[in-house]
């Protein structure tokens, strides 16, 4: 019987820099970003101590492109991924190792805008002329006034 294992990382932290989106020679998107997590505690003598951990995050393909569009330095992010370790030889010939989190999913916290809204300018960034017109009041129908109508599936908001 095969034993089961789990490699899962869940973090909530702040982006330490703007994401760096690149493409491999084969055309696959790869995005690297840094996330800082903070921890504070009180010692026995009553002093408050703080500790910061920095994490290297790597996203691939469509998720990488989303990171490049939606994330900016300082934003708070919830992320899920898996831990990976790599070894390589640096330019000076020294062996190096690196620990990364390969991103599986993320949620951006912050200004209250939905992810789809974050791709367009904030309402305050739009000129006055582009703001929507006032909404007309809807008429209320009683059950006896209802008539058959054709509903277009494209008109359904969900």
Automatic annotation (TrEMBL):
It comes from the Bacteria. Transmembrane segments: none annotated. SUPFAM superfamilies: Nucleic acid-binding proteins. GO terms for biological process: DNA replication. One of its GO terms (cellular component) is nucleoid. The keyword DNA-binding applies. Gene3D superfamilies: Nucleic acid-binding proteins (2.40.50.140). Keywords: DNA-binding. The keyword Transcription does not apply. Residues 117-158 are annotated as: Disordered. One of its GO terms (molecular function) is single-stranded DNA binding. Homotetramer. This is Single-stranded DNA-binding protein. It comes from Candidatus Roizmanbacteria bacterium GW2011_GWC2_35_12.
């Amino acid at each position: 019987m095969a034993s089961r294992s789990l490699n899962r990382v869940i973090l909530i932290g702040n982006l330490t820099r703007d994401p760096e989106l690149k493409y491999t020679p084969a055309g696959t998107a790869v995005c690297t970003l840094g996330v800082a997590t903070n921890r504070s505690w009180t010692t026995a003598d009553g002093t408050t101590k703080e500790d910061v951990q920095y994490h290297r995050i790597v996203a691939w393909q469509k998720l990488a492109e989303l990171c490049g569009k939606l994330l900016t330095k300082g934003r708070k992010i919830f992320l899920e991924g898996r831990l990976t370790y790599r070894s390589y030889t640096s330019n000076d010939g020294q062996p190096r190792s690196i620990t990364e989190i390969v991103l599986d999913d993320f949620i951006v916290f912050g200004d209250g805008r939905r992810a789809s809204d974050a791709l367009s300018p904030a309402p305050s960034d739009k000129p006055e002329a582009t703001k929507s017109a006032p909404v007309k009041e809807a008429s209320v129908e009683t059950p006896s006034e209802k008539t058959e109508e054709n509903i277009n599936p494209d008109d359904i908001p969900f």
